[in-house]
Amino acid sequence: MTAPQRSRHFVKTGHAPGHIRECLLNALDIQADWWKNLEMDFLRDSDQRWWDKASPLRPAHWIIEQLWHCADIVPGLERRSVMDWLADQEYFTYSQLVRALKEDLDERVATPQESQTSAS
Question: Does the reported pTM lie above 0.85?
């Protein structure tokens, strides 16, 4: 199964669909392990099956990819909430936010693997 495709229009305009931005913001409300709380409904059955069967990291990376070039502004309340736990810098656009989230996600995922490796 392949991940849902991104429209070329979104890449050219720098604007991601609202339902993708909302999916991320809803997951970030939970903060800890936000990538495990992503919920999305797709119109195409094949896309929904991919989402439902994928490990939590795959949809998280998909969402990050969708918003990587998004120039839309993150709402102020959500921005302040994320700044409380993510890092000391401000994130004005979704592009800035997902780049920091990817870094955070990579660190969180790498940490358990490193401890398992050192225990062996």
Answer: no
What are the structural domain ranges in the chain?
A: 15-119
Which tokens hold the place of 6?
Answer: 């991104």
> Encoding tokens for residue 54?
């994928």
For residues 96 and 109, give the distance between their C-alpha atoms in angstroms, rounded to a whole number. Answer: 20
What percent helix, strand, coil does the chain show, rounded to 5?
A: 65, 0, 35
Distance of alpha carbon 99 from alpha carbon 111, whole angstroms: 19
Q: At 33, is the pLDDT very low, low, confident or very high (cuts 50, 70, 90)?
A: confident
**Sign, Cα dihedral of 26, 85, 64, 11:** positive
Q: Which of 32, 30, 16 is nearest to 65 (CA)?
A: 16
- 88: pLDDT confidence band, cut at 50, 70 and 90? low
Q: What is the band of 5 on the pLDDT scale with cuts at 50, 70, 90?
A: low
Could you tell me which of 56, 93, 59, 87 has the C-alpha nearest to residue 74? Answer: 93
Task: Compute the distance between CA of residue 111 and CA of residue 15 in angstroms, rounded to an integer.
Answer: 33
